[in-house]
Amino acid sequence: MSDRQELYRSPNGDAWFLAREPANGRAFILHQPNAPSGGHLSPIELVTFLSKDANAPERQALLRLIGTLVEVPPYADRT
């Protein structure tokens, strides 16, 4: 079983998770459709996930999470 963190849950109940395979550290996305759609988890490679709809809220959630990993130094002059 992979380690995972929920990225986004849509109003219809679909969920996307950032997952990591403990054995090798490989990161990927897990998509879990809502129960009426079957609810079966589907792994998605990060490059595939990021190459899809740029405005998708689940993609934006991943980009926000990645952004939290970067420490932005203060700038003395931004002009």
Instruction: Give the class from helix and strand content and strand pairing.
Output: alpha+beta
| Largest sheet properties | 4 strands, antiparallel
Average pLDDT figure: 89
Gyration radius from CA atoms, angstroms: 15 Å
N-end to C-end Cα span: 49 Å
Tell me the overall shape: globular
Helix content: 10-25%
Poorly predicted spans: none
Tally the helices. 2
Count of distinct strands:
4
SSE inventory with pairings:
Layout: E1 3-9, E2 15-20, E3 27-32, E4 42-44, H1 46-50, H2 57-67
Antiparallel strand pairs: 1-2, 2-3, 3-4
What does this structure look like?
The protein has a four-stranded antiparallel sheet. The N and C termini lie far apart (49 Å). It has one domain (3-67). With 79 residues, the chain is an alpha+beta fold. It has helices spanning 46-50, 57-67; strands at 3-9, 15-20, 27-32, 42-44. The model has no long low-confidence stretch (mean pLDDT 89).
Task: Give a short synopsis of this structure.
The chain is α+β, with helices and mostly antiparallel strands and 79 residues long. It has helices at 46-50, 57-67, and strands at 3-9, 15-20, 27-32, 42-44. The model has no long low-confidence stretch (mean pLDDT 89).
Considering the chains and any ligands shown, give keywords for the structure.
4 strands, alpha+beta, 2 helices, 20% helix, 79 residues
